[in-house]
Amino acid sequence: MADEREYSSIVVDGVEQAPSRAMLYPVGFTEEDFKKPQIGVASIWSMVTPCNMHINKLADEALRGADEAGGKGVLFNTITVSDGISMGTPGMRYSLVSREVIADSIETVVGAQGFDGFVAIGGCDKNMPACGMAIARLNRPAVFVYGGTILPGEDRRDIVSVFEAVGKHAAQKISDIELKEVEATAIPGPGSCGGMYTANTMASALEAMGLSLPNSSAQNAVGEAKRLDSFRAGAAVRNLIKLGIKPSDILSREAFENAITVSIALEGSTNAVLHLLAIAHAAGIPLELADFTRVGERVPVLADMRPAGVYAMSELIEIGGIQPLMKTLLNEGLLHGDCLTVTGKTIAENLADVEDYPKGQKIIRPLSDPIKPDSHLVILRGNLAPEGAVAKITGHEGLAFTGKARCYHGEEAAMSAIMSGEVFPGDVVVVRYEGPRGGPGMREMLSPTSALNGRDMSDQVALITDGRFSGGSHGFVIGHITPEAYDGGPIALIEDGDEITVDAVSQEITLHVDDATLAARKQAWQRPAPYATRGTLAKYAKLVASASEGAVTDKYLGED
Predict the structure, then answer these.
(1) Residue 371 domain-assigned?
(2) pLDDT tens digits, residue range 280-295?
(3) Before 386, cis peptide (omega within 30)?
Protein backbone atom coordinates (compact mmCIF):
# COMPACT_ATOMS: atom_id res chain seq x y z
CA MET A 1 0.00 0.00 0.00
CA ALA A 2 1.22 3.47 -0.84
CA ASP A 3 2.20 6.08 1.73
CA GLU A 4 -1.18 7.79 1.98
CA ARG A 5 0.24 10.98 3.47
CA GLU A 6 3.34 11.22 1.32
CA TYR A 7 3.19 15.02 1.13
CA SER A 8 0.91 16.27 3.91
CA SER A 9 2.87 14.48 6.64
CA ILE A 10 5.84 16.74 5.87
CA VAL A 11 3.66 19.78 6.49
CA VAL A 12 1.73 18.75 9.62
CA ASP A 13 3.60 16.00 11.49
CA GLY A 14 5.98 16.47 14.39
CA VAL A 15 6.80 19.11 16.98
CA GLU A 16 8.49 21.33 14.42
CA GLN A 17 5.25 21.65 12.41
CA ALA A 18 3.16 22.98 15.31
CA PRO A 19 2.95 26.40 13.59
CA SER A 20 1.49 24.74 10.48
CA ARG A 21 -1.14 22.95 12.51
CA ALA A 22 -1.94 26.15 14.40
CA MET A 23 -2.77 27.89 11.13
CA LEU A 24 -4.98 25.02 9.95
CA TYR A 25 -7.31 24.88 12.97
CA PRO A 26 -9.04 28.16 12.01
CA VAL A 27 -9.76 26.89 8.48
CA GLY A 28 -11.62 23.84 9.74
CA PHE A 29 -9.06 21.19 10.68
CA THR A 30 -9.56 19.02 13.77
CA GLU A 31 -6.97 16.92 15.57
CA GLU A 32 -8.16 13.85 13.65
CA ASP A 33 -7.87 15.60 10.30
CA PHE A 34 -4.08 15.78 10.62
CA LYS A 35 -3.98 11.99 10.39
CA LYS A 36 -5.88 11.93 7.08
CA PRO A 37 -4.53 12.40 3.56
CA GLN A 38 -5.21 15.94 2.40
CA ILE A 39 -7.12 16.29 -0.86
CA GLY A 40 -7.14 19.68 -2.51
CA VAL A 41 -10.11 20.79 -4.58
CA ALA A 42 -9.11 23.29 -7.27
CA SER A 43 -12.31 25.18 -8.05
CA ILE A 44 -12.24 27.36 -11.13
CA TRP A 45 -15.40 29.14 -10.06
CA SER A 46 -16.12 32.71 -11.02
CA MET A 47 -18.90 34.94 -12.21
CA VAL A 48 -16.78 35.98 -15.18
CA THR A 49 -18.52 33.51 -17.47
CA PRO A 50 -21.54 31.15 -17.47
CA CYS A 51 -19.13 28.29 -18.15
CA ASN A 52 -17.88 28.47 -14.56
CA MET A 53 -20.63 30.20 -12.59
CA HIS A 54 -21.88 26.98 -10.97
CA ILE A 55 -18.58 25.29 -10.19
CA ASN A 56 -18.58 26.39 -6.54
CA LYS A 57 -21.48 23.98 -5.96
CA LEU A 58 -19.63 21.15 -7.70
CA ALA A 59 -16.55 21.90 -5.60
CA ASP A 60 -18.61 21.52 -2.43
CA GLU A 61 -19.69 18.08 -3.63
CA ALA A 62 -16.09 17.07 -4.36
CA LEU A 63 -15.09 18.17 -0.85
CA ARG A 64 -17.91 16.12 0.63
CA GLY A 65 -16.87 13.10 -1.41
CA ALA A 66 -13.25 13.40 -0.25
CA ASP A 67 -14.26 13.78 3.38
CA GLU A 68 -16.74 10.91 3.42
CA ALA A 69 -14.11 8.64 1.84
CA GLY A 70 -11.73 9.31 4.74
CA GLY A 71 -9.69 12.21 3.42
CA LYS A 72 -9.56 15.86 4.42
CA GLY A 73 -10.74 18.07 1.57
CA VAL A 74 -9.32 21.58 1.25
CA LEU A 75 -10.84 24.08 -1.16
CA PHE A 76 -8.88 26.62 -3.18
CA ASN A 77 -9.60 28.72 -6.25
CA THR A 78 -7.88 29.93 -9.37
CA ILE A 79 -8.75 32.31 -12.18
CA THR A 80 -10.50 31.94 -15.49
CA VAL A 81 -11.20 34.21 -18.44
CA SER A 82 -13.93 33.95 -21.04
CA ASP A 83 -13.06 33.38 -24.68
CA GLY A 84 -16.62 34.05 -25.74
CA ILE A 85 -16.73 37.45 -24.03
CA SER A 86 -13.23 38.61 -25.03
CA MET A 87 -13.44 37.23 -28.59
CA GLY A 88 -12.52 39.81 -31.20
CA THR A 89 -11.11 42.25 -28.62
CA PRO A 90 -7.60 42.93 -27.27
CA GLY A 91 -8.59 40.98 -24.17
CA MET A 92 -8.51 37.74 -26.16
CA ARG A 93 -4.72 37.96 -26.02
CA TYR A 94 -4.98 36.78 -22.42
CA SER A 95 -6.96 33.63 -23.24
CA LEU A 96 -4.16 31.19 -24.04
CA VAL A 97 -1.96 32.99 -21.51
CA SER A 98 -4.53 32.07 -18.86
CA ARG A 99 -3.91 28.38 -19.53
CA GLU A 100 -0.36 28.82 -18.25
CA VAL A 101 -1.42 31.01 -15.32
CA ILE A 102 -4.03 28.45 -14.20
CA ALA A 103 -1.66 25.48 -14.53
CA ASP A 104 1.01 27.41 -12.64
CA SER A 105 -1.42 28.43 -9.88
CA ILE A 106 -2.75 24.91 -9.30
CA GLU A 107 0.80 23.55 -9.24
CA THR A 108 1.78 26.32 -6.82
CA VAL A 109 -1.01 25.73 -4.30
CA VAL A 110 -0.84 21.93 -4.34
CA GLY A 111 2.94 21.99 -4.10
CA ALA A 112 3.07 24.63 -1.36
CA GLN A 113 0.34 23.12 0.82
CA GLY A 114 1.51 19.53 0.54
CA PHE A 115 -1.74 18.01 -0.68
CA ASP A 116 -1.57 14.26 -1.19
CA GLY A 117 -3.95 14.43 -4.14
CA PHE A 118 -6.45 16.77 -5.69
CA VAL A 119 -9.60 17.26 -7.72
CA ALA A 120 -9.50 19.88 -10.48
CA ILE A 121 -12.83 21.24 -11.73
CA GLY A 122 -12.86 23.22 -14.97
CA GLY A 123 -15.53 24.39 -17.34
CA CYS A 124 -14.07 26.57 -20.08
CA ASP A 125 -11.66 26.31 -22.98
CA LYS A 126 -8.31 27.08 -21.33
CA ASN A 127 -8.87 26.11 -17.72
CA MET A 128 -9.53 22.50 -18.71
CA PRO A 129 -6.21 21.78 -20.45
CA ALA A 130 -4.60 23.83 -17.68
CA CYS A 131 -5.96 21.30 -15.17
CA GLY A 132 -4.52 18.48 -17.27
CA MET A 133 -1.14 20.20 -17.37
CA ALA A 134 -1.12 20.71 -13.60
CA ILE A 135 -2.13 17.09 -13.00
CA ALA A 136 0.71 15.91 -15.23
CA ARG A 137 3.31 18.23 -13.70
CA LEU A 138 2.49 17.44 -10.07
CA ASN A 139 2.12 13.68 -10.58
CA ARG A 140 -0.03 13.24 -7.48
CA PRO A 141 -3.29 11.24 -7.45
CA ALA A 142 -5.83 13.47 -9.18
CA VAL A 143 -9.16 13.50 -11.01
CA PHE A 144 -10.45 16.09 -13.45
CA VAL A 145 -14.13 17.04 -13.30
CA TYR A 146 -15.77 18.76 -16.26
CA GLY A 147 -18.24 21.45 -15.22
CA GLY A 148 -20.66 20.27 -17.91
CA THR A 149 -22.27 21.62 -21.04
CA ILE A 150 -24.89 24.33 -21.31
CA LEU A 151 -28.42 23.57 -22.45
CA PRO A 152 -29.46 24.97 -25.85
CA GLY A 153 -31.07 28.37 -26.02
CA GLU A 154 -34.30 29.21 -27.77
CA ASP A 155 -34.58 27.56 -31.21
CA ARG A 156 -31.48 25.46 -30.32
CA ARG A 157 -29.27 28.54 -30.32
CA ASP A 158 -25.83 28.80 -28.76
CA ILE A 159 -23.03 31.37 -28.62
CA VAL A 160 -21.97 30.69 -32.23
CA SER A 161 -25.52 31.57 -33.30
CA VAL A 162 -24.87 35.07 -31.95
CA PHE A 163 -21.52 35.47 -33.70
CA GLU A 164 -23.07 34.36 -36.99
CA ALA A 165 -26.03 36.67 -36.47
CA VAL A 166 -23.56 39.56 -36.41
CA GLY A 167 -22.45 38.59 -39.92
CA LYS A 168 -26.05 38.28 -41.08
CA HIS A 169 -26.79 41.71 -39.66
CA ALA A 170 -23.81 43.19 -41.51
CA ALA A 171 -25.14 41.63 -44.72
CA GLN A 172 -28.56 43.15 -43.94
CA LYS A 173 -30.15 39.70 -43.72
CA ILE A 174 -31.59 40.34 -40.26
CA SER A 175 -32.76 43.49 -38.51
CA ASP A 176 -31.58 45.15 -35.30
CA ILE A 177 -34.55 43.63 -33.49
CA GLU A 178 -33.81 40.13 -34.80
CA LEU A 179 -30.15 40.40 -33.77
CA LYS A 180 -31.20 41.53 -30.30
CA GLU A 181 -33.59 38.58 -30.00
CA VAL A 182 -30.79 36.11 -30.84
CA GLU A 183 -28.45 37.83 -28.39
CA ALA A 184 -30.99 37.67 -25.57
CA THR A 185 -31.99 34.02 -25.96
CA ALA A 186 -28.83 32.09 -26.90
CA ILE A 187 -27.37 31.50 -23.42
CA PRO A 188 -29.99 30.14 -20.99
CA GLY A 189 -27.79 29.40 -17.96
CA PRO A 190 -24.63 27.73 -16.62
CA GLY A 191 -22.33 25.52 -18.63
CA SER A 192 -19.80 25.46 -21.43
CA CYS A 193 -20.59 26.27 -25.06
CA GLY A 194 -22.95 23.65 -26.39
CA GLY A 195 -21.44 22.24 -29.59
CA MET A 196 -18.35 20.11 -30.09
CA TYR A 197 -16.34 23.26 -29.54
CA THR A 198 -13.13 23.39 -27.53
CA ALA A 199 -14.64 22.83 -24.07
CA ASN A 200 -16.58 19.70 -24.98
CA THR A 201 -13.70 18.48 -27.14
CA MET A 202 -11.21 18.79 -24.29
CA ALA A 203 -13.61 17.27 -21.76
CA SER A 204 -13.97 14.26 -24.04
CA ALA A 205 -10.21 14.06 -24.64
CA LEU A 206 -9.43 14.18 -20.91
CA GLU A 207 -11.95 11.40 -20.27
CA ALA A 208 -10.49 9.30 -23.09
CA MET A 209 -7.05 9.93 -21.60
CA GLY A 210 -8.24 8.39 -18.33
CA LEU A 211 -8.15 11.52 -16.15
CA SER A 212 -11.93 11.76 -15.59
CA LEU A 213 -14.53 9.35 -14.30
CA PRO A 214 -16.61 7.66 -17.02
CA ASN A 215 -19.14 10.03 -18.63
CA SER A 216 -17.82 13.13 -16.84
CA SER A 217 -17.44 14.75 -20.27
CA ALA A 218 -21.04 14.09 -21.29
CA GLN A 219 -23.20 15.62 -18.58
CA ASN A 220 -25.21 18.80 -18.46
CA ALA A 221 -23.87 21.50 -16.18
CA VAL A 222 -27.00 21.47 -14.07
CA GLY A 223 -28.41 18.18 -12.83
CA GLU A 224 -27.99 15.17 -10.59
CA ALA A 225 -25.49 13.43 -12.88
CA LYS A 226 -22.96 16.26 -12.61
CA ARG A 227 -23.48 16.57 -8.85
CA LEU A 228 -22.76 12.87 -8.41
CA ASP A 229 -19.77 13.04 -10.75
CA SER A 230 -18.23 15.74 -8.56
CA PHE A 231 -18.96 13.84 -5.32
CA ARG A 232 -17.49 10.64 -6.74
CA ALA A 233 -14.38 12.49 -7.92
CA GLY A 234 -13.49 13.41 -4.35
CA ALA A 235 -13.88 9.78 -3.29
CA ALA A 236 -11.97 8.61 -6.38
CA VAL A 237 -8.92 10.65 -5.43
CA ARG A 238 -8.98 9.06 -1.97
CA ASN A 239 -9.07 5.66 -3.67
CA LEU A 240 -6.18 6.57 -5.98
CA ILE A 241 -4.15 7.55 -2.92
CA LYS A 242 -4.88 4.16 -1.34
CA LEU A 243 -3.91 2.34 -4.54
CA GLY A 244 -0.84 4.48 -5.13
CA ILE A 245 -1.96 5.34 -8.67
CA LYS A 246 -0.47 8.56 -10.01
CA PRO A 247 -0.95 10.42 -13.30
CA SER A 248 2.32 8.96 -14.60
CA ASP A 249 0.65 5.54 -14.39
CA ILE A 250 -2.20 6.83 -16.56
CA LEU A 251 -0.64 9.31 -18.99
CA SER A 252 1.13 6.96 -21.37
CA ARG A 253 1.71 7.62 -25.05
CA GLU A 254 -1.18 5.25 -25.74
CA ALA A 255 -3.45 7.35 -23.51
CA PHE A 256 -2.69 10.40 -25.66
CA GLU A 257 -3.44 8.37 -28.78
CA ASN A 258 -6.81 7.51 -27.23
CA ALA A 259 -7.47 11.21 -26.68
CA ILE A 260 -6.57 12.02 -30.29
CA THR A 261 -8.78 9.19 -31.55
CA VAL A 262 -11.85 10.31 -29.61
CA SER A 263 -11.29 13.96 -30.58
CA ILE A 264 -11.25 12.96 -34.25
CA ALA A 265 -14.29 10.69 -34.04
CA LEU A 266 -16.23 13.55 -32.41
CA GLU A 267 -15.12 16.08 -35.06
CA GLY A 268 -13.52 18.10 -32.29
CA SER A 269 -11.78 21.45 -32.17
CA THR A 270 -8.35 22.21 -33.65
CA ASN A 271 -7.43 23.47 -30.19
CA ALA A 272 -7.18 19.81 -29.14
CA VAL A 273 -3.91 19.68 -31.08
CA LEU A 274 -2.42 22.62 -29.18
CA HIS A 275 -3.62 21.46 -25.77
CA LEU A 276 -2.74 17.77 -26.09
CA LEU A 277 0.79 18.76 -27.15
CA ALA A 278 0.98 20.93 -24.02
CA ILE A 279 -0.33 18.25 -21.63
CA ALA A 280 2.03 15.69 -23.18
CA HIS A 281 4.95 18.07 -22.63
CA ALA A 282 3.94 18.44 -18.97
CA ALA A 283 3.77 14.65 -18.65
CA GLY A 284 7.12 14.10 -20.35
CA ILE A 285 5.49 12.10 -23.14
CA PRO A 286 6.89 12.67 -26.66
CA LEU A 287 4.04 13.88 -28.88
CA GLU A 288 4.26 15.91 -32.08
CA LEU A 289 2.14 17.05 -35.01
CA ALA A 290 3.05 13.95 -37.01
CA ASP A 291 1.28 11.80 -34.42
CA PHE A 292 -2.03 13.49 -35.22
CA THR A 293 -1.53 12.65 -38.89
CA ARG A 294 -0.55 9.05 -38.12
CA VAL A 295 -3.53 8.41 -35.83
CA GLY A 296 -5.86 10.35 -38.12
CA GLU A 297 -5.17 8.11 -41.10
CA ARG A 298 -7.15 5.29 -39.49
CA VAL A 299 -9.80 7.12 -37.45
CA PRO A 300 -13.05 8.27 -39.09
CA VAL A 301 -15.21 11.26 -38.18
CA LEU A 302 -18.46 9.83 -36.81
CA ALA A 303 -20.22 12.62 -34.88
CA ASP A 304 -22.59 14.98 -36.67
CA MET A 305 -21.94 17.71 -34.15
CA ARG A 306 -21.85 21.47 -34.32
CA PRO A 307 -20.26 23.63 -35.63
CA ALA A 308 -19.98 21.84 -38.99
CA GLY A 309 -22.77 19.40 -38.15
CA VAL A 310 -26.24 19.54 -36.65
CA TYR A 311 -26.35 18.41 -33.03
CA ALA A 312 -25.50 19.90 -29.63
CA MET A 313 -23.69 18.19 -26.76
CA SER A 314 -26.88 18.04 -24.70
CA GLU A 315 -28.43 15.94 -27.48
CA LEU A 316 -25.46 13.55 -27.47
CA ILE A 317 -25.89 13.25 -23.71
CA GLU A 318 -29.51 12.16 -24.22
CA ILE A 319 -28.40 9.10 -26.21
CA GLY A 320 -25.60 8.04 -23.86
CA GLY A 321 -22.69 10.47 -24.21
CA ILE A 322 -19.30 9.36 -25.49
CA GLN A 323 -19.03 6.01 -23.70
CA PRO A 324 -20.88 4.01 -26.41
CA LEU A 325 -18.69 5.70 -29.04
CA MET A 326 -15.57 4.74 -27.12
CA LYS A 327 -16.81 1.15 -26.88
CA THR A 328 -17.34 1.06 -30.66
CA LEU A 329 -13.84 2.42 -31.23
CA LEU A 330 -12.42 -0.12 -28.77
CA ASN A 331 -14.18 -3.02 -30.47
CA GLU A 332 -12.71 -1.92 -33.80
CA GLY A 333 -9.21 -1.83 -32.38
CA LEU A 334 -8.99 1.97 -32.53
CA LEU A 335 -8.53 2.50 -28.78
CA HIS A 336 -5.89 1.09 -26.45
CA GLY A 337 -8.10 -0.77 -23.99
CA ASP A 338 -5.34 -1.61 -21.53
CA CYS A 339 -4.71 2.01 -20.53
CA LEU A 340 -5.26 2.67 -16.83
CA THR A 341 -7.79 5.31 -15.69
CA VAL A 342 -8.70 7.18 -12.50
CA THR A 343 -11.24 4.49 -11.63
CA GLY A 344 -8.31 2.19 -10.96
CA LYS A 345 -9.51 0.10 -13.89
CA THR A 346 -8.57 0.07 -17.56
CA ILE A 347 -10.47 1.67 -20.40
CA ALA A 348 -11.68 -1.76 -21.49
CA GLU A 349 -12.90 -2.61 -17.99
CA ASN A 350 -14.75 0.70 -17.71
CA LEU A 351 -16.48 0.10 -21.05
CA ALA A 352 -17.35 -3.56 -20.51
CA ASP A 353 -20.98 -3.01 -19.51
CA VAL A 354 -21.70 0.11 -21.58
CA GLU A 355 -24.82 -0.20 -23.73
CA ASP A 356 -24.92 0.71 -27.41
CA TYR A 357 -26.61 3.85 -28.68
CA PRO A 358 -30.37 3.50 -29.19
CA LYS A 359 -31.44 2.39 -32.63
CA GLY A 360 -32.45 5.16 -34.98
CA GLN A 361 -30.26 7.87 -33.47
CA LYS A 362 -28.58 10.10 -36.05
CA ILE A 363 -25.90 11.86 -34.01
CA ILE A 364 -23.16 9.21 -34.16
CA ARG A 365 -22.73 7.54 -37.54
CA PRO A 366 -21.82 3.85 -37.88
CA LEU A 367 -18.26 3.05 -38.90
CA SER A 368 -19.63 1.80 -42.22
CA ASP A 369 -21.01 5.27 -43.03
CA PRO A 370 -18.68 7.92 -41.56
CA ILE A 371 -18.95 11.63 -42.15
CA LYS A 372 -15.30 11.46 -43.23
CA PRO A 373 -13.23 8.25 -43.47
CA ASP A 374 -10.18 9.86 -41.89
CA SER A 375 -9.36 12.78 -39.63
CA HIS A 376 -10.76 16.27 -40.09
CA LEU A 377 -7.75 17.59 -38.14
CA VAL A 378 -5.33 17.94 -41.04
CA ILE A 379 -1.69 18.82 -40.39
CA LEU A 380 -0.45 20.84 -43.35
CA ARG A 381 3.12 21.59 -44.38
CA GLY A 382 4.70 23.40 -47.30
CA ASN A 383 6.66 26.52 -48.12
CA LEU A 384 4.04 28.62 -46.31
CA ALA A 385 4.18 26.51 -43.12
CA PRO A 386 7.46 24.59 -43.03
CA GLU A 387 6.98 23.72 -39.35
CA GLY A 388 3.30 22.88 -39.73
CA ALA A 389 -0.22 24.29 -39.64
CA VAL A 390 -3.53 22.86 -38.45
CA ALA A 391 -6.68 22.80 -40.56
CA LYS A 392 -10.17 21.64 -39.68
CA ILE A 393 -11.39 20.10 -42.94
CA THR A 394 -14.64 18.21 -42.47
CA GLY A 395 -15.37 17.75 -46.17
CA HIS A 396 -18.38 20.08 -46.06
CA GLU A 397 -16.20 22.91 -47.37
CA GLY A 398 -14.33 20.82 -49.96
CA LEU A 399 -10.84 19.38 -49.83
CA ALA A 400 -8.84 22.04 -51.69
CA PHE A 401 -8.86 25.79 -52.17
CA THR A 402 -6.80 28.12 -54.37
CA GLY A 403 -7.19 31.88 -54.19
CA LYS A 404 -5.54 35.27 -54.07
CA ALA A 405 -4.14 36.61 -50.81
CA ARG A 406 -5.72 39.54 -49.03
CA CYS A 407 -3.42 40.39 -46.13
CA TYR A 408 -4.19 41.97 -42.76
CA HIS A 409 -2.03 42.84 -39.78
CA GLY A 410 -4.17 41.55 -36.93
CA GLU A 411 -7.73 40.35 -36.44
CA GLU A 412 -9.39 43.76 -36.14
CA ALA A 413 -8.25 44.81 -39.63
CA ALA A 414 -9.51 41.53 -41.13
CA MET A 415 -12.83 41.75 -39.31
CA SER A 416 -13.36 45.32 -40.49
CA ALA A 417 -12.71 44.27 -44.09
CA ILE A 418 -15.14 41.36 -43.90
CA MET A 419 -17.89 43.43 -42.29
CA SER A 420 -17.50 46.28 -44.79
CA GLY A 421 -17.67 43.99 -47.83
CA GLU A 422 -14.01 44.24 -48.88
CA VAL A 423 -13.56 40.46 -48.98
CA PHE A 424 -14.80 38.61 -52.05
CA PRO A 425 -15.28 35.01 -53.19
CA GLY A 426 -11.94 33.48 -54.14
CA ASP A 427 -9.98 35.45 -51.56
CA VAL A 428 -7.58 33.90 -49.08
CA VAL A 429 -7.78 36.16 -46.03
CA VAL A 430 -4.37 36.24 -44.33
CA VAL A 431 -4.46 37.30 -40.67
CA ARG A 432 -0.93 37.55 -39.32
CA TYR A 433 1.02 38.75 -36.30
CA GLU A 434 -1.47 36.83 -34.14
CA GLY A 435 0.87 33.97 -33.14
CA PRO A 436 1.91 33.04 -29.60
CA ARG A 437 4.72 35.62 -29.59
CA GLY A 438 3.44 38.16 -32.09
CA GLY A 439 -0.11 38.53 -30.76
CA PRO A 440 0.92 37.79 -28.19
CA GLY A 441 -1.38 35.01 -27.05
CA MET A 442 -2.52 33.47 -30.34
CA ARG A 443 -6.04 34.90 -30.44
CA GLU A 444 -8.95 32.84 -31.80
CA MET A 445 -10.63 33.99 -35.00
CA LEU A 446 -14.26 33.11 -34.26
CA SER A 447 -15.47 36.61 -35.09
CA PRO A 448 -14.05 36.68 -38.66
CA THR A 449 -15.08 33.10 -39.47
CA SER A 450 -18.57 33.64 -38.08
CA ALA A 451 -18.88 36.88 -40.05
CA LEU A 452 -17.95 35.00 -43.22
CA ASN A 453 -20.51 32.30 -42.38
CA GLY A 454 -23.15 34.92 -41.67
CA ARG A 455 -22.49 36.41 -45.10
CA ASP A 456 -22.75 32.93 -46.73
CA MET A 457 -19.12 33.02 -47.83
CA SER A 458 -17.63 30.19 -45.77
CA ASP A 459 -17.29 27.92 -48.81
CA GLN A 460 -15.99 30.69 -51.06
CA VAL A 461 -13.28 32.28 -48.91
CA ALA A 462 -10.35 30.70 -47.06
CA LEU A 463 -8.83 32.20 -43.93
CA ILE A 464 -5.28 31.44 -42.81
CA THR A 465 -3.52 32.71 -39.69
CA ASP A 466 -0.67 32.18 -37.28
CA GLY A 467 -3.35 32.59 -34.62
CA ARG A 468 -5.98 30.02 -33.67
CA PHE A 469 -9.59 29.22 -34.34
CA SER A 470 -12.35 28.70 -31.85
CA GLY A 471 -13.91 25.28 -31.70
CA GLY A 472 -16.98 27.11 -32.98
CA SER A 473 -15.27 28.10 -36.23
CA HIS A 474 -16.03 26.24 -39.42
CA GLY A 475 -15.29 26.78 -43.08
CA PHE A 476 -12.00 26.60 -44.98
CA VAL A 477 -9.82 27.78 -42.10
CA ILE A 478 -6.15 27.08 -41.39
CA GLY A 479 -4.44 28.16 -38.19
CA HIS A 480 -1.32 27.55 -36.09
CA ILE A 481 0.90 28.44 -39.08
CA THR A 482 4.54 28.08 -38.01
CA PRO A 483 6.96 29.76 -37.97
CA GLU A 484 4.71 32.66 -37.06
CA ALA A 485 4.93 36.09 -38.71
CA TYR A 486 6.62 37.72 -35.71
CA ASP A 487 9.51 35.26 -36.10
CA GLY A 488 9.81 36.08 -39.81
CA GLY A 489 7.97 32.99 -41.01
CA PRO A 490 6.76 32.84 -44.62
CA ILE A 491 3.30 34.08 -43.60
CA ALA A 492 4.96 37.47 -42.91
CA LEU A 493 6.20 37.61 -46.52
CA ILE A 494 2.88 37.19 -48.34
CA GLU A 495 1.72 40.15 -50.41
CA ASP A 496 -1.77 41.01 -51.63
CA GLY A 497 -2.57 39.09 -54.80
CA ASP A 498 -0.16 36.20 -54.18
CA GLU A 499 -1.73 32.87 -55.05
CA ILE A 500 -2.12 30.35 -52.25
CA THR A 501 -3.25 26.73 -52.44
CA VAL A 502 -4.48 24.60 -49.55
CA ASP A 503 -4.77 20.88 -50.35
CA ALA A 504 -6.14 18.67 -47.60
CA VAL A 505 -5.54 15.49 -49.59
CA SER A 506 -1.82 16.06 -50.14
CA GLN A 507 -1.68 17.88 -46.78
CA GLU A 508 0.12 20.85 -48.28
CA ILE A 509 -0.18 24.62 -48.03
CA THR A 510 1.65 26.39 -50.82
CA LEU A 511 2.51 30.01 -51.50
CA HIS A 512 3.01 30.25 -55.27
CA VAL A 513 5.97 32.61 -55.09
CA ASP A 514 9.47 31.55 -56.14
CA ASP A 515 12.25 31.12 -53.60
CA ALA A 516 14.30 34.05 -54.89
CA THR A 517 11.39 36.46 -54.47
CA LEU A 518 10.68 35.17 -50.97
CA ALA A 519 14.37 35.54 -50.07
CA ALA A 520 14.32 39.17 -51.25
CA ARG A 521 11.16 39.86 -49.24
CA LYS A 522 12.74 38.26 -46.17
CA GLN A 523 15.78 40.50 -46.56
CA ALA A 524 13.53 43.58 -46.54
CA TRP A 525 11.24 42.36 -43.73
CA GLN A 526 11.35 44.07 -40.35
CA ARG A 527 9.84 42.74 -37.14
CA PRO A 528 7.13 45.06 -35.78
CA ALA A 529 7.38 46.50 -32.29
CA PRO A 530 6.11 44.10 -29.58
CA TYR A 531 2.56 44.60 -28.39
CA ALA A 532 3.64 44.63 -24.73
CA THR A 533 6.97 45.32 -23.04
CA ARG A 534 5.92 44.79 -19.41
CA GLY A 535 3.66 42.51 -17.42
CA THR A 536 1.98 39.21 -18.19
CA LEU A 537 1.81 39.48 -21.97
CA ALA A 538 5.46 40.52 -22.26
CA LYS A 539 6.63 37.64 -20.04
CA TYR A 540 4.50 35.21 -22.04
CA ALA A 541 5.88 36.43 -25.39
CA LYS A 542 9.43 36.03 -24.09
CA LEU A 543 8.95 32.45 -22.86
CA VAL A 544 6.39 30.85 -25.18
CA ALA A 545 7.28 28.06 -27.59
CA SER A 546 5.73 27.79 -31.06
CA ALA A 547 2.22 26.52 -31.70
CA SER A 548 3.71 23.33 -33.17
CA GLU A 549 5.21 22.69 -29.73
CA GLY A 550 2.00 23.35 -27.80
CA ALA A 551 2.71 27.04 -27.03
CA VAL A 552 4.01 26.08 -23.59
CA THR A 553 6.13 28.46 -21.53
CA ASP A 554 8.60 26.07 -19.91
CA LYS A 555 9.98 24.14 -22.88
CA TYR A 556 13.30 25.93 -23.16
CA LEU A 557 13.94 26.94 -19.57
CA GLY A 558 17.57 26.38 -18.66
CA GLU A 559 18.75 26.58 -22.26
CA ASP A 560 20.99 29.37 -23.51
Answers:
(1) no
(2) 999 999 999 999 999 9
(3) no
